[in-house]
Amino acid sequence: MANSIEKRKPSLQERMNDAMGNAVDKTQSSQAWNSIFRPGSIFRKGYTDSPRNRSYVVMNSVLYHLHPVKVKRHAVKVSYTLCLGGLSFFLFIFLTVTGIFLMFFYRPTAAAAWDDIATLQTSVAFGLLVRNMHRWTAHLMVLSVFLHMARVFYHGAYKAPREFNWVIGVMLLQLTLLLSFTGYLLPWDQLSLWAVTVGTNMMGFTPVFGEQVRFVLLGGTQIGAETLLRWYVLHVLLLPFVIVIFMAIHFWRVRKDGGISGPL
């Protein structure tokens, strides 16, 4: 043949598919993707029954990670971890129990909130004790979560492949601070009112959505009965629910990423 067959040029659809495939490959090979999804253990192709692949079943299950078959010896030394993560979780459970007790004697209304607190402290058996236990436990939880993150940072346990779990930990610290701050309003006294005034005014200066966020948190343009109700719902329902979800993910990734005692 005199002339060779001319190669067919790829169509626009084919070029778009190639570009999309390259973008997906680059995304899945990035550090952010690997820190979140760990494709080496989750997206295995051609699964075969082997001890290695059986371990992946355990590694990808939250429930199985609560009681692992074995852990590294150095990961359970009290002198190294100080049990700050477990202590933070225990304090959260203790806050939940004491908080449920307090909910039986508290009404989130502007007319009844302060009277209910006074009645709780003077007329309810062990009411003052339980309220003080709840308050001081909240302070201790903020301190323990902060020290836990400081310990992780000091030992370099935030490094690969634990970057995603470090982000989860930062979010848990923020949620813990929000949980403590929302509970500060519930007695509905002068300290509470001024704390909410300062806090919501600061949120009002958030770029773009500041005024909208402040309006949602106050339930209007100024502090009122709607403010107390909204912060009560945040304190007893929304924030604890979100924290439980993030803690489950956090515990799962602790086992999945090989512990939190130090860099791999």
List keywords for this structure.
mainly alpha, 264 residues, 13 helices, Cytochrome Bc1 Complex, Chain C, 69% helix
Helix segment tally: 13
Shape: extended
The first-level CATH class of the domain at 80-256 is given as Mainly Alpha
CATH fold topology of the domain at 80-256:
Cytochrome Bc1 Complex, Chain C
Oligomer: single chain
Strand content: under 5%
Question: Whole-number average pLDDT?
Answer: 85
What is the annotated CATH architecture of the domain at 80-256?
Answer: Up-down Bundle
Number of strands: 0
Cα Rg: 26 Å
Report the sheet with the most strands, covering strand number, pairing sense and barrel closure. Answer: none
Can you identify the CATH superfamily of the domain at 80-256? Cytochrome Bc1 Complex, Chain C
Determine the structural class based on helices, strands and strand pairing. Answer: mainly alpha
> Low-confidence parts, pLDDT < 50 over ≥5 residues?
41-45
Give helix and strand order, one letter per element, not per position: HHHHHHHHHHHHH
Q: Bin the helical content.
A: 55-70%
Task: Please give the alpha-carbon distance between the first and last residues.
Answer: 63 Å
